[in-house]
Amino acid sequence: MIEENSVLTPEEVADILKIAKNTVYELIKRGELNAYKVGKKFRIDLKDIEEYKNSSKRKKSSTSESRLNQNLSSAISNANILKSETISGSGLVICGQDSVLDILSRYLEVHPKGVRALRSYVGSYNGLYELYNGTAQIATAHLWDGDSGEYNIPYVRRMVPGVPTIIVHIACRMLGFYVAKGNPKKILSWEDLKRDDITIVNREKGSGTRILLDEHLRKIGVLGTQINGYERECISHLAAASTVARGGADLGIGNEMASLSVKDVDFIPIQKERFELVMKKEDMLKGPFQAILEILQSDGFKSELKGIGGYDLEETGKIVAEI
């Protein structure tokens, strides 16, 4: 239950309104959503979200239709630019949501053999789908297979069939449960999801975290529909942790770093996951792909990740599989 005087982050607002975080920033920029800064971070009062929703309802349908057409035109234009830049060789598309990809993209743009990286903020499953269909050149994955206990390799074999691929390790991250401070429900393992007194907040379909949950549910013989809150989705680790902190759920699943950014949440470590890049083997001799390997293996890149914290960098830059 969110209190009337709650102060929310843009990520939490995006979760409430079921929109992308970038859309929240655009609403703030256009003056449609009131916000203020604490240091360098935006914060939004819950009452201002309600005012925005009510204001939107009062607008004439013609205005809404006009804005929809403008947004559609903009989306088509952006898609054409993305397609044009990728086809012309002036950029490549990297699928994934982790902030480490922002750092990789920055290094890639200034590397002598690098290019501009275009980001597609989709989950692991959809990223492999885009790689297979040729709409992206690089996918990132953290997909756990419950039968083999392996990460990524079984999914690449199934989802990119007949296409020789290379899997390059980025880092390991600790995954676990977000629970309220003090863990009042005493949640410690996947088996606790068999209890009927626990409500969860889930991740979106196609995300590695959602697939991890579904695989473990399958192994313990529980259907998702039997769990309170299973159908409620959020689009980031931070949003899941924030939902638990606000009392909106007893349990969320995500990485340890997000829990450190949210008050009144404890983190119960459950499983170390492998976060890796997947590329087509035919591309590996091209300059930008060689640049990516050099960046991942460089001391500068590893030092920046080490400074952020939360990443195990022991195998960073290592080619772990050729499929």
TrEMBL record:
Residues 107-297 form the PBP domain. It comes from Clostridium magnum DSM 2767. It holds the Pfam family PBP_like. This is PBP superfamily domain protein. One of its GO terms (molecular function) is DNA binding. Residues 7-55 form the Helix-turn-helix domain.
